[in-house]
Design brief:
Elements (H helix, E strand, L loop, with lengths): L1 E2 L6 E2 L3 E5 L1 E5 L2 H8 L15 E3 L2 E3 L2 H6 L10
Antiparallel strand pairs: 1-2, 3-4, 5-6
The structure holds zinc ion (2 copies).
The site of one zinc ion has 8 residues, from loops.
Length: 76
């Protein structure tokens, strides 16, 4: 038994994610909430590969282009 560190749910099927530190979650929704970075342009959670340019992270090549980062393509 463990407690989700995001919503506090005490649940018998929690799982751990090691991302530098050890985290405990009861659902992927909570894990994404805690760990997924935000797209710099539209603010959505980047849960796929995302695209990175000059230290900035975007959810897709379109957002990167709109934000002024050119020459990027989705690397799915
Ligand atoms: Zn939770
Ligand atoms: Zn975006």
């Amino acid at each position: 038994m463990a407690r989700c560190e995001v919503c506090g749910n005490d649940y018998d099927k929690t799982f751990e994610v090691i991302a530098g530190d050890r985290h405990v979650f009861d659902s992927f929704e909570c894990a994404i909430h805690a760990l997924a970075p935000l797209c710099e342009h539209c603010g959505c959670r980047v849960i796929g590969h995302g695209v990175e340019s000059h230290g900035r992270l975007f959810c897709c090549a379109h957002c990167a282009a709109v934000a002024g980062e050119t020459g990027l393509r989705d690397r799915a």
